[in-house]
Amino acid sequence: MARLILTGTTNFYVSPSGNNANDGLSSSTPWQTVQYAASYMRDKVDLSGYHGIVNLAAGTYAENVAVCGSVMGGIQFFIKGDETTPGNVIVGTGGNAPGIYTRDFGVVTVSGVRILGGVQATQCGVVDIGKSGSSTPTVEFGQATGGVHLNAGDSGYINVIGPYAIVGDAYYHASGNTFGRVNLGGQAVTLPGSRTFYAFINSSFYGQIVANGAETYSGAGAGTGSTGYKYQVAQLGILVHNNVTFPGSGTFLQNPGMVFP
Q1: How far apart (Å, rounded) are the C-alpha atoms in residues 189 and 205?
Q2: What are the residue boundaries of the structural domains of the chain, listed by start?
Q3: Neighbours of 57 (CB within 10 A)
Q4: Is 139 within 8 Å of 162 (Cβ atoms)?
Q5: What pTM was computed for the model?
Q6: Labelling 98: which of 26, 149, 156, 159 has CA 20 to 30 A away?
Q7: CA-to-CA distance for 165 and 76, rounded, in angstroms?
Q8: Model confidence over 143-183: pLDDT tens digits?
Q9: Chain centroid to CA 161: how far?
């Protein structure tokens, strides 16, 4: 099958009531799974420098979506749900399995969804989180029991480009390890309720967590409203916090690692 060559920004559609045998090119002929859409973008589309946008209808997508390998004719594609009420579109199965993960130069921008199990970027994969320029959260991080909301490892990269909300617990909220990097992006983060973490921030094995100093945390779970260490930096991890105060009832663990104000 010849690739679909885009001639402009093109929308694709997914719905829990769809069918992967559909063409995915209209809201009346949607695919059923986000994984099918992600694989289709890699295997059957030539972006030709344009944007490919995978639009998710309201509902629950109980799947762990892998974005593996680069797309042709561009750098990335977009997964977009309900940017006004992200909780209307749920992706993931929860626990410590990431709802969306990238590897092998896979690159995706995610907005308008509640993610269960967090996101993971590894082996040169990249995830951009949120909608740039938005004044309200366009991504929600739900329950990731034993897992990580923002997890970059093995030279993976996560870049936060818009405000988001934390509505579920995790072992770590953001973790950089083995040369992975999380850029917190100076964004506003809302914690509507108290959350539980082992540590809000973790950096280890030459991983990096970088705050630019403009990050803000608000809601009942901000400050000491959430439990756990504010950060853990170990085994040559790097944290650049620029005097940002992270949520957590504890202070910090540093053994050994590098922390820069």
Answers
A1: 26
A2: 59-260
A3: 17
A4: yes
A5: 0.96
A6: 26
A7: 24
A8: 999 999 999 999 999 999 999 999 999 999 999 999 999 99
A9: 10
